[in-house]
Every structure is written in C-alpha cells, then in structure tokens.
Task: structure prediction
Amino acid sequence: MGWGRHIAVSFLAAVGWVATAVAQPVNPTTEGIQIGLSTDVIRITTDFSGENLTIFGSLDNIDPQQQRQSRYDVIVVLEGPARPVTVRRKERILGIWINTQSETFVGVPESYSIATTRVLQDITNPESYRRLALGLDYVHMRPLDPQGDVTTIQEFTAALRQRKRASGLYNERIGGVQFLSPTLFRATLRLAPNVPVGTHKARAFLFKNGVFIKETNAHLAIVKSGFEQMLFRLSRNHSLFYGFCAVGLAIVTGWAGRLVFRKD
Amino acid sequence: MSVNVVVLLAMGAAVGFLSGMFGVGGGFLITPLLIFYNIPPAIAVATGANQVIASSFSGALAHLKKGTLDFKLGTVLLIGGIVGSTLGIYVFSLLRSLGQLDLIISLTYVAFLGTVGGMMLVESVNAIRRSRGGAVPVKRPGHHNWIHRLPLKMRFRASKLFVSVIPVLGLGAGIGLLSSIMGVGGGFIMVPALIYLLKVPTNVVVGTSLFQIIFVAAYTTIVHAATNLTVDMVLAFVLMLGGVAGAQYGAKAGQRLKGEQLRALLALLVLAVAIRLAFDLFLPPPDIYSLVPAV
Result:
C-alpha cells in the first residue's frame, strides 16, 4: 500500500542535472558514467514494506566496437548511512541462551543494495572488488578495536555480513542493471522494509574488460513521511520534550476514552 | 521497523478487553506481546510504560468520581516509586550496554508472571472449590503483623490506616523499579500487596494503585524517552486507541463472570505468557549472533 510501485527517476532530468552539477573535465578518450536521481528525498511510512528503486544512467565516450561485444559492465550500489554496530554471540549457560562475546564495528553501512550487469566474478577479479570495497563480501567493516584477536574479528565480521544479508538490508541483484541502448542503462535496487532513514549514497561503477574505469555517485535522503519524520526528529533532538508529549498524549487519550465510553 | 497498524490496534484492543475484564492495567501483557511481535524489548518496555498511563488515567478518573482513592497513601507510594524508577532506569541503561537487557527483561517477566499467576491460580481454584462445597466463612487476615510494628507511623484517613511509612515507601520503590525495567504499571503486584501486607480496604486499593501508577509510568516514560530514546509515541498511541475501546467491552464481559472464575482465567493467561517467554529463553535461538546499534 502507499506510494508508487517504483520510485520514478527521470533520466531526462538527470542528464541536465548531472551536466551542470558534476562539472567533470571531458576527456574524449576515456569513458564516463553518469547517474541521476529525479528526487533527492524518499519518504517512507510506518507500514513501508519494501520497494524497488530504479536509477537511470548513461555512459559517455564509449567504444562502439567494445559495446557490441558486451565488454562494458556497470555495478550500481545504494549504501545506507554508516553507523557503529555491535555483534553479539549467544552461548548456552545453564540451559539459557545468554549473550557472551561481542565485537563492535564502526563505519558499517546500515544497508547495502547492489545491482550488477552480470555475476560478480565475470565482471572483475576479487582484488579489484577488495580495493573498491565493492560487493556484499567486500563492504568495509572496521573493528573498533583493530588490535583484537584476528580469528575473533574474522568470525564476527562474517557473522555481521551474514546477519545483514539475512535481514535483507544487504542484498544483491545479479542482472539488476540492464542496458536499454548502447549508452543508456537502468539499475533496479531493492529497498528492504526496514531500510534505515538517513543519507544514502548511490554509486555507479563502470568496468571495461574487467578493468575499473570510473565511479560516480549521487546522494539520496530516505526520511519518514511528514508527521512521523517530525516526531522522529523530536525524539532524537528534543528527547525530554518528546517524553512530555508522550505522557500528554496518553493522558488525553485516557481522558477522551473516558468521555466517549462513560457509563456512570 | 515495519509494523502493521491493524495488528497493533487488535493487540491493543485484546489487551484492553482483558484489562477491562480483570481490572488490571495490561502493561504486563502489552510488553510481552510487543516482544513476540519482534519489537525490540527495550522499545517494548518504554512504549508499554507510555501506554499504561492512558489506561490508568482512564481508570483513576472513575475512582476519583466515586471517591475510592486515597491521595495521601498514593502520594507516599509515589515518592517511593520515583526513587525506584530512577534506579530502574539506571539499571536498564547499564544492562543494555552489557547486552543483557533482553535476557533480564524476559527473566523478570518469567519470574513475576510465573509466581503471581501460580499463586492466583491456586487461590482461585480453592475459592471455586469452596463455593461448590458450600459457604465456608473466609477467615479474615489478622489485623497485626510485623509490618505494623515498624516505626515512623503515619495516618491515612481515607484508608482508615495507621501504618509505618517504611513499607509504603519500600513497596512504591519496588513497583517503580519494575515499572522501568518491565514497562508495567505494577498493579498486579501493588493490589495484592496493599490488601495483604498493608491491609488497605479493598474499595480504595484499585483507585489508589492506579493513581500512583499514572505518575510512576509518566515519570518512567519521560526518563526513558530522554535517556534511552526508546519511547515510540506512534506505537503507544495505536495501542492506547485499541486499549481504551477494548477496555469498555471487557468491563461488560467481566460483569457476567464470577470473581473467582475471572481470577482463574487471568491466572491461566498470566501463566501462558510466562511459559511462552520461558520457552524462548531455553530454545536455541534461530541465530546465535545478533546485531545491535553500538552506543
């Protein structure tokens, strides 16, 4: 329910916007990549159940020969805001499952959606992915205490990736980027129902023959819809006042309930 | 967080129905239900406290009108309650940073609901047996016990009571502590404690208990909102709407059942919630790893 099936992103508006906002030096010999979002704000409601986000983009200065042989690949990523996260591990103690060990990571994107033209190993090698910190297996996860035990950090890093994938916050869509014409492409990304609010970063990577050529990015704010966003901000920035409001609301509701249903 | 408004309304209405039927606040049912619905326990507790204000206020108004409310006793209980709640919020934050909050919430629920539910079941089954076996006069509990020998006595006229303030403050503090850790008003402990420990006349017990719950729950809500950022006003409001409406029908349904049958039913319900929470503690979790925002 709620808003449109896709978050429409107009490519026409995008081209004009990109051309003026991202003043890149035009080099006729290297390829370029551009993406644009028709909106820089997405509003979600409490009953948001996940959506597809469509991003259009285009390539410049491509070699028609290479294009015909499908030598160009595009990967589009939507990275959520980076926040510190603690991974806890439960162990059975006296029959009860209790959190024991934990590891805190900083700068971990809360969500990470990736769409690609082909399966990842066909686009480029693991070394490139590692260098670009690109892909679900390579998203950078920095432990708060880098001096900690290496095997523990590895174990908790793996658990963090696995939990993020299981929750749908980290997802990938192979073939989610499609060429509509030799230069125009469309990327379809999945926004999970529990997508975090905050500033998201859309990044597009261009590869040619397995070699990374260029990256471009754009920002997208995901906010709660009108009234809820206001309440959310109030609860974070003026938490004491928010508490008083919550109490006031409860008193009024209790009193109104009494008026409506009064029998005595 | 993605939740269904209709489910929440129904949840609020169901708990409201039961709270109207049994004359309880319903916080002890709302919080576990929210946890079963995958709301993080920290939010379930703080939001539960917020919801409790509405139902207690509604109920206290009715008692205020009938004059079955002892302000003086309520105020002394409240002073203890504020102290207990403050301590509870500190414990809550501490447990949260240690990663043991969810466990302690579940354990306290299992312990309290299990004990209270068990005692109520035994008592009500005995009462049902007695009423079937013919009217045996119930022995009135003795008028003096150790509590009445404590110093610092104070007179509570509306309750026709002359008692030390120490147990009153202590009781208030204990309930305040539970209020902030469990997100309950604490009526299910306050009412029996006032009747059996302090010998407060039954007619002023519920009103007085509700009176102090309003303030302790309000204080808990404000401090949770300010320190732990765990109050969700929208969630609480949806629950209140369902709750206030459900309570009216529950009260009507309750009038058709006998007191001891009602208590036996409530006891079974309380035990069911306790057992479900206990199961979750012992069953292997779907994943031994969990993610929480770091503080």
Summary: Chain B is about 75% helix and 5% strand. Chain B has one domain: 5-133+145-281.
